[in-house]
Predict the structure.
Amino acid sequence: MSKRTAVISIVLAMILAVVAVTPGMAKPDKTTANSVAVCGCGKVFVPDATTEYLTYSGKQYACCTHACHEMAAKDVAGSAKMFDAVLAKMMAPKPTLAVVNVASSTDKGIKAVCGCGKEFTINQQTEYLTYNGKVLACCTPECHAMAAKDPAAAAKQFEETAKKLGMTF
């Protein structure tokens, strides 16, 4: 596993730990509509009113599409095991670091503020800088390359940007 993949896995695990729709939860209502779920196929998605669920042993499992639901419904017990295995894999290892420049979580994703001041949505292409026990999400590969040249100065810039925006760093 590459360092970048490991960091993405840690970030995803942290996000899921904070806002995940766990298998035991009921179908989302207005209070949980901005939560994310993990389908048995491995896709992370935002459940909505059209999300279909499977129920097995008293737990509900959200399916990302109708096609995934149809496939999973053919073997509910096996699919439940697959859902649990996918979630367990995403949650391990237990994260010890947090992305410190996250600004907000919306139905469109996790927003962060880069050291350059640009607000962006964290995605699978996001590159991260780790410095002094902190993980910082960079808005572009170019920002990451610049930050990686002098991580101490970059971390200071991230902190100053966060303070200007009233964020806790």
Summary: The radius of gyration is 18 Å. The first helix runs from residue 3 to 19. The chain has two domains: 3-91, 102-164.
